[in-house]
Design brief:
- Keywords: Acetylation, Apoptosis, Phosphoprotein.
- The protein is built from five helices and no strands.
- It has about 130 residues and is an all-alpha fold.
- It is extended and about 75 Å long.
- The N and C termini lie far apart (about 80 Å).
- About 10% of the residues are buried.
Length: about 130
């Protein structure tokens, strides 16, 4: 991704943020801003993902939209900071998915709290 392209994307994003915060009360402008942001995200993802990785990400978005959004945000940030060295293949996307899954994985523990029945003595005679 060339520096000129990144600079154009940054300028476009800055203009969108200013428009969004400046006069977002108008519904039409809000929808247009959302559409522009969506288009910008799609163009960045098209530049950093190859076709098979893009298909996998869209399949993930159908099943788990929150996780797909997290992966998209991660990829966009990596692209903005220039940390991606070319297009990501499907196997590279799988590695990124595993990283995001590990970061967002919730640790679940089950704790049993057993309470004693009110006994007057500890020894039970049967």
């Amino acid at each position: 991704m060339a520096d000129d392209e990144l600079e154009a994307i940054r300028r476009q994003r800055m203009a969108e943020l200013q428009a969004k915060h400046g006069d977002a009360s108008n519904n039409q402008q809000g929808e247009e801003a959302k559409q522009r942001e969506s288009d910008m995200r799609n163009s960045i993802l098209a530049q950093v993902l190859d076709q098979s990785a893009r298909a996998r990400l869209s399949n993930l978005a159908l099943v788990k939209p929150e996780k797909a959004n997290a992966v998209e945000n991660y990829l966009i940030q990596m692209a903005r900071f220039g940390k991606l060295g070319g297009k990501i293949s499907e196997s590279g996307l799988i590695e990124i998915l595993e990283k995001v899954s590990q970061q967002t994985e919730k640790k679940m523990t089950v704790k049993f709290n057993r309470q004693r029945v009110m006994d007057s003595d500890d020894e039970d005679d049967y």
